[in-house]
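Morning, I've got a small favour to ask if you have a moment. I'm working through a protein record and want to make sense of it properly. The fold is given in discrete form, as structure tokens running alongside the sequence. Can you walk me through what the tokens say about the fold? Thanks so much in advance, here it is:
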Amino acid sequence: FNLFTELISDIKFNTIKTLQIIRFRVEDPQEEAKRVAEQLDIQRKIKEAAIQFNLYHNEEENSIEKKVSRNDFCPCGSGKKYKQCCGKSGPKKGVFAS
């Protein structure tokens, strides 16, 4: 119990000693307003860059051609289904050979 009370008193003493050493820095209101304005400007630029990136990324996704389904008409213009034209697989091997 004595060790515990000594520990508590040491913590209190060190806390008060530390609080007496601390000095708060008071900035000029104009300087603080300038610093806040700079931070807001940086955040605005970051948001604009993110929006531009998203727009570019969405355009890029739209320009990529989608995979042709087997039952769609062939993109080569033959009028056949893709599975019967350009998507036709080669000769079967093994058990599935006809």
Observations:
- Residues 28-56 form one domain.
